[in-house]
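Following the same procedure, the fold was encoded as tokens, giving this record:
***
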Amino acid sequence: MDKKTGKCVQYTYDIRTFQGYGINNNFINSIHEDKSGNLWIGTDGGINKFEKTKGEWKYYTIKEGLSGSMAYGIVEDESGHLWASTDLGLARFDPETETFTNYGIHDGLQGNKFNPGSYWKSPEGRMFFGGVNGYNSFHPQNIKNSTFIPPVVWTAFYIHDRQIKFDKALSSLRDLNLSYKFDFITFRFAALYFTNPAMNQYAYRLEGRDDDWIYLGPNNTVSFSKLNAGEYVLHVKGANPDGVWNEEGLSLHIKIIPPFWRTTWFAIILALLASALVVSWLRLRKKYKAVHLAYEESLENIFAKYALTQREQEIIRLILEGASNKDIEKKLFISSSTVRNHIYNIYQKLDVRNRLGLINLIKIHARK
């Protein structure tokens, strides 16, 4: 609401609204204005940041590393970090690096689920968050992070939900060749940090398909369905619950072998066959033209030698095309008796008895 004019602008979630132009969920649990004047809204869809000067929205969800899908309470500490209670633990967010540090039961929380509206910061900076099993109280300055960078390893590989065993350790694999028929594959991995393994964080990027990292939260599996034939590199990285990432992580070269009809060598064979067919067709066409010219020349010689009239020549051409007397009548618009007379004269001039003799005579001349 503009206090001067009293006019209001509404921000509601709508699937038709472009990302960045509205809130990501209509159930609002908390609103916090930070020291820079930005608004942070906790919703059932995560954390929404609204930059009032730009009028732009930005979202932080499980995909970006938030511990739970719902953000209930948001409180800012003296260092400028935001603390958010969720439906799956407590999250600390660094606005400068845009990274989360998540805390769970193993860190001393009353439970992983907190309650909407149950949050407060005392004048001394102590924070309180209420949940389903009680509440937690702490001073942010007393929370020390682990600096341990956890190693990341592969733990399992599945094809169509069936685990595949290899002759050597899965973590030693660098290349994996798969048939295009394996249209659903799954990788499982783990960050080796055991103080609170349920709160370890993971992210992956499939080079050749993905431009950016995709954050999985505590989920340590990723599946791919119907990958196109080609080469990919699967990158996986992990972090401890305090948000310390192993940026080097894991890399696995994956080659999806295409069906033979999509291979380069098959395309080359098809191109060669097509070229051979074109060459053969050109040769046959050339030969046909030569035969046709010889055939026409033979007919002209016969017509001249036996002094056949124009009408008789037309009837001979129709006979060679397989036309019957009825067909000739219709084609030349003459009576049946006229057709019979012309054919009789042709037989007499060429000294043949019937159509078969006429055709054989023309064939003999054509061969010569």
